[in-house]
User: Fold this.
Amino acid sequence: MDTEVEHIYASDLMSDVLAFGKPHSLLLTGLATRQSIISAHMAEFVGVVLLRGKVPKDGAEKFAREHRLVLLSTNLDMYDACVRIHAIRKRQRATPPAKPVEQSKEEILLSREFSIQGGDFANAGMVSTEVKSILKKIGLDPLLIRRVAISTYEGEMNVVMHARRGQATLRVTPQMIEVIIEDEGKGIPDVELAMQEGFTTATEEMRALGFGSGMGLPNIKNNSDEMEIESEVGQGTTLRMRFFIK
Amino acid sequence: MSECQHQWEMTNIRFGFVVFEKCSHCNGIRTFFSASGHPMVGDEYVEGEHTWRCMENAQSLQFDLQCKQCGQLEKFDDVMGFLYCTECLDDCKVAILQKKYAEKKTWVIVAFGFLPRRKDTELSPRRLKILEDYFNQRRDTSRSTIAVLSFDLIDDFSRCKGEFIHDVGMLSLEPPKERKPLF
Amino acid sequence: MTVKELIENMGLKPLSQFDDREITGVFVSDMLSDVMAGAQSGNLWVTVQTHKSIVPAANLVDVSAIIISSGKEVPRETIELATKHNIAILWSELPTFELVGKLYSLGLATG
Assistant:
């Protein structure tokens, strides 16, 4: 519970948490879903504060406990919560602690497979959580692990949201980490288009009403060193991501 | 008639998702509210003559209104949300009314019930008036006022390009395009 | 403090044309549902949301101005809609948490 907080990140947008949040941040949010907690965990945050008296939903609490993530709830709104933390910060202005970076010198060879169930939100994020803890045990660079965790999470969520089922493979060699996510789903008709930021899977009618959702592929591209997508409509999609170990 | 000059406030606030489903046979759209902490997805399923598939989830809230003075409770669990008219169709009744109201510094907001529209679920003028009173009691009406209209005034829903006041993309994995990730 | 005074004090960038008015407090959220449930008349609304429907949401609860934080790019259609209805959209490069610190130091309280 007593963990050092280095930054505060105040936002309700989980895409922002994954894209811009700094490691060792504390998230202040009014979004009390399980996905908020998992996003914070993937982005290497120390914890989440739920604002305006919101209560954690759908096993968010259990997830936080299992992954030693601090989960707090307050009746304060985002403005007051920020203000109180500013007041504490002014009082102590502590120098941030040096981050312990444990780099393993041993040669590692590891291969693991996981299955992902489409539409199963109760377990969504469990594969990326598992991948993250395996890589942590090996003792790789936390920033590298974070990039792998975020990319795997985005890939996993795409299977949950758009496919019937899928399989994730994690391979670690002395040079790199490779994550392959294969799914049995609708497939992506135009991969190049789906790679563009702002791409949406919403229908024309829904877009007319201002709705739309993306697939997070640009964020995977930004976080990985190499990324490949193969997709066949009606069959499924294979996403390969590689992360080099320096 | 009650003597009370009602002062409304929001109560029983529920956060969740408005789920949109579309039938692949008749192209009909239906919506419902889910108080779950995650969006609804999954394979299409058959129900009578329809084959429904989930199209979209929009984060939203449901609420009731209660009078601070007399305690009268009005339920609004049949309200899906509010829409701002963009005057996309010249012959739309909402657009025509909005132009008229604009002269009096009155903003028009369209209250939506769930789809498909049914006679027994339409929003009565009495309940629209309560919503309108609530929003006006909450604002500085010397500057401008709110008028709440029913979605029944929109003839063709599929041509409407109004703006829904809903949260979309809160759980999206798509990062905003204007900045590079820090790591 | 009025919206114009705030702009001068904080060096915020106004993006739309607006009617100046008194600020009654601050409400910070990226969820329109939260704003509809909690913001008060005359509040300053701080958010990273930039899509068009923030304008009707802001108007529905009668906020005095919207501040877009974290340097988010605001679509032209959002600015045009705000100008049409004289609602202030102000812009800041500061992340939400830092921006709130500055607002508080100017003596603004929660909504």
